[in-house]
Amino acid sequence: MRISLMAAIAACVLESGCVNASPNAPPSAPPARCEIRLSTWCIQEGAYEITRRLASDSVHDRFWFLRGRFKPESVLVVLEPNGCKNGLSDKVDLAEFEHQIEWQGRTWDRFKVRLKSDGSCDLTVLLPPDEGDSMEWAFTEGVPLIRPCKDTSCDDVGLVQIKPALAKLRQESR
User: Fold this and answer.
1) What is the pLDDT of residues 113-125, one digit of tens each?
2) 122 in helix, strand or coil?
3) What is the C-alpha to C-alpha distance for residues 77 and 82, in angstroms, rounded to an integer?
């Protein structure tokens, strides 16, 4: 009985195509998880350092600072408005872009991404200005770590979908 069961399994695997995976297929990456999960958005695992500060203005609730390991001067800053505290995201749109603005004694490129169609959750994201550095962390690796949460799994692709338009705007303003 045991031999015939093993023979049947072997025949299934070898002859009839029960297994569709190619022997040359690369292993799939583990699913990305949120390191910091908020109501409307999250910060995916991948930043070397994440710092949170409470905002001292009437518009924002918190400031988030993300850094990569090898480019510590390449900081990504997220200014989270009060409207992002409750509810899920229902859209991801690049709402605004400004080149070389001043904030806290530094020059930044600033963009806003709308995560709620009523405009109550427009994350403001600050990046070092584009100077053509292909190893710059904030844009190349930091931006994709910001993900909208359209449901409780928070597994949306993130800001990757607006990255091409943002790259074009940053390059045009150089």
Assistant:
1) 999 999 999 999 9
2) strand
3) 16
Grouped pLDDT means (10 residues each) for the chain, 174 residues: 47 43 51 87 94 91 92 91 92 94 94 95 94 83 94 84 90 80
Q: Report if pTM > 0.85.
A: no
- Residue 19, C-beta contacts closer than 8 angstroms, at least 6 positions apart: 13
Kindly report the number of other CB atoms within 10 A of residue 159's CB atom: 23
DSSP codes, 139-154:
IIIIGGGEEE-SSTT-
Please, how many CA atoms are within 13 Å of residue 8, restricted to the half-sphere of its CB? 5
Q: What does the domain layout of the chain look like in residue ranges? A: 33-172
Nearest in space to 109 (alpha carbons), one of 126, 134, 124, 133: 126
Q: Residue 45 in contact with residue 154, Cβ under 8 Å? A: no
Is residue 42 within 8 A of residue 80, CB to CB? The reply is no
Query: For residue 37, what are the β-bridge partners?
Result: 42
Q: Tens digit of pLDDT for each residue in 136-166?
A: 899 999 999 999 999 988 887 878 889 999 9
Q: How far apart are CA 56 and CA 130, in angstroms?
A: 28
